[in-house]
Write a structure and sequence with these properties.
The chain is α/β, with parallel strands linked by helices. It contains ten helices and ten strands. The protein folds into two domains: about 30 residues, no CATH class; about 190 residues, Rossmann fold. Helix content is about 35%, strand content about 15%. The strands form two sheets. An eight-stranded mixed β-sheet has the order 1-9-10-6-5-2-3-4, sandwiched between helices. A two-stranded antiparallel ribbon has the order 7-8. Helix 4 packs parallel to helix 10 and helix 9 runs parallel beside helix 10. The longest helix has 14 residues.
Length: about 280
């Protein structure tokens, strides 16, 4: 039997059903939001992968023997990666073995801009502006793409749709690849499959952004797309980087820990902030 509080809570929810139905009749597109909720994605994920709860976790400090970066630049605005996400990319880019970087999904260009401090061969891929206009994106959103990364002339910008683009036409492979484009299941799986088919070599490292909504909440639609995209033979090389929203493909042996959504903190980050002026030039 439900306790009294549980019964009252259930009655309260039931009373909201007519209002919910009324809203859905007026705005049927909202049904898609319900169907695509993380809980629904989790249920779908568990049906296909009943024995997988989460990826094993690794620490950023264990991913490089080099000194980790101290200065990270970010706008700290909507769409910006976490500071720890940028710290991860810069740490991976700082390895001796990393000489080339590919990024899918640029936005303002913060991630590639930080990586380019350590890697001179950087390429980003983003939707053409005209395609974004056809999709109805706000003009100021469109014009902000690459507003930071264009300030580094060593960064190359390729405008194309990765759904149709032939990655093999690049005729090269990359040491570090960051997948941060459209986060729907279809596009994450497509981008992943293409990257693993044409762009990685034996020691390549791949990072996916938004494997998690936050460092302790898995985003199951993206998680399933990653597992399906890399193929079962590569599942053992996948990790969640602690304190980030990123998943990692890493072939070397590495120390791991078990994911805990309610983990009690055992370390704290000390971060110093310094603001400086930025001249935004929109095209």
């Amino acid at each position: 039997m439900l306790p009294t509080g549980g019964i009252l809570n259930m009655k309260s929810k039931l009373r909201k059903i007519p209002a919910l139905i009324s809203v859905l009749l007026k705005e049927p597109y909202l049904i898609n939001l319900i169907l695509k909720s993380n809980e629904a994605a989790k249920n779908k994920f568990q049906q296909k992968y009943p024995n997988i709860v989460a990826l094993p976790q690794v620490e950023v400090k264990d991913l490089s023997d080099e000194l980790m970066p101290e200065t990270i630049e970010s706008f700290l605005m909507d769409g910006s990666s976490l500071i720890t996400d940028l710290h991860l990319l810069m740490t991976l880019a700082g390895r001796t073995a990393c000489n080339s970087y590919l990024e899918i999904g640029t936005w303002r260009g913060e991630s590639v801009y930080n990586v380019a401090k350590q890697v001179s061969d950087c390429l980003t891929i983003n939707l053409p502006k005209e395609e974004m206009r056809l999709l109805g994106f706000h003009e100021q959103y469109i014009r902000q793409h690459g507003v930071l990364s264009v300030q580094n002339k060593n960064i190359s910008h390729l405008e194309t749709n990765t759904r149709t683009f032939d990655f093999g036409s690049l005729q090269k492979k990359f040491d570090l690849i960051f997948i941060d484009g459209d986060h729907s299941y279809d596009m994450v799986r497509s981008d992943t499959e293409k990257v693993f088919k044409d762009l990685i070599k034996e020691n390549s490292v791949v990072v996916w952004h938004d494997y998690a909504y936050n460092p302790q909440k898995i985003r199951y639609e993206v998680f399933q797309a990653i597992l399906d995209g890399v193929g079962e033979e590569n599942h053992r090389h996948l990790y969640h980087v602690k304190n980030t929203m990123c998943a990692l493909f890493w072939r070397d042996e590495i120390k791991t820990s078990v994911y805990d959504a309610y983990e009690i903190p055992e370390k704290i980050y000390e971060i110093s902030l310094r603001e400086k002026a930025f001249s935004t030039v929109l095209k």
